[in-house]
Amino acid sequence: MKQKHILWAALVTLCSMGAQAQVVADTLLNKASDKPFYFSTPVADGNYRVTVTLGSKKKASQTVVRAESRRLMVENCSTKRGQFQTYSFIVSKRSAEIPGGGKVSLKPRELDYLNWDGLLTLEFNGGAPAVKSIRIERDTTATTIFLCGNSTVVDQELEPWASWGQMIPRWFTDRVAVSNHAESGLTVRTFLDGRRLDKVLSMAKAGDYVVCEFGHNDQKEKRPGDGAWYHFAHGLKTFVDRVRAAGATIIFVTPTQRRSFDEATHSRIQETHLDYPDAMRAVARREGVPLIELHDMTRTFFETLGFEGSKRALVHYPANTFAGQTKALADNTHFNPYGAYEVAKMVVMGMKQLQLPLVGELRADWQDFDPAQPDNPDAFVWYPSQKQDTTKPDGN
Length: 396
Known about the structure:
Elements: E1 15-16, E2 22-32, E3 37-42, E4 46-55, E5 61-67, E6 71-79, E7 84-93, E8 119-128, E9 130-139, E10 143-148, H1 164-167, E11 176-180, H2 188-193, H3 196-203, E12 209-213, H4 228-245, E13 249-253, H5 276-287, E14 291-292, H6 294-309, E15 314-317, E16 329-335, H7 337-353
Parallel strand pairs: 10-11, 10-12, 12-13, 13-14
Antiparallel strand pairs: 1-2, 2-9, 3-8, 4-7, 4-9, 5-6, 5-8, 15-16
Helix pairs in contact: 4-5
């Protein structure tokens, strides 16, 4: 991360803590502010248990904690003056280098993303963020969920864009890590060709999960042999074989719906993904792959919110909502933080329906979710990060 993005940084010399942990940072910060601030420290690839004590001796505080590219870790911690609360969660850190040689083929814009630099970065946001202490230690025991996909999955770096992959860490305990390798515009082919699965499998261990959502961009590929039933299905089979060979569990997720209502009544979502969801379902049946029906859940979600209400889950904003935004934003594919938060809950519900062992590690405040009864967008609170850009992400 460039120096201008580091508001506070520290590195404590690595020291052994026995076989299970190495302390990377153990810092008494005692920082309170009325503005967001960051903490960064250099780390190698891997999972890190982060323990933060939030609050201030001098003032009441209200703190949100995010990691790397806006991954939600602590949604809201409110403390009175002199009161403190401690939270622990796992942050997965990675670089582009692949052990044994080679690198992930990053898009130019990714070179500045917090997800891909050599630092583990924490963002402290909220109405009045306050941090007493931060402890970061290497963790080798957490189960890791690796995410593969496109712009509907990726850790979106910039406001006002968001995806379910950066919201889902909020719901898991410090025995589960989420490592998001998705990127806007990717297909099954370009994910594989860019060596992103190579990177995932270089980090994965037996018992981990690899979760794949594709289909949005794949349907636009027009090379010979492309299509849902040949190249797309073949690519998914490649994922299955390689992930299983590594001892991990593969999970398919059907693509999120686009906000495409029928012209006549504006009450029903039209299918825009051609045969791609069906092709994924067919591969899942044939190969015995657990499948989460996000395609169906997001249809219910949009239709429940309605033609106008569903805009509030996506990047639909009038002109001048954000600095330098001279034109209205009307994106019917990419979610805003509220929409991404709701879709993350749908993915968790899909895991519960599959009875994955992972759901035993949901946090105590998890409540089951029904896309036909979504949360009220008026009640959703999101404190924007400092990095903003209204340029539309790749893909549609």
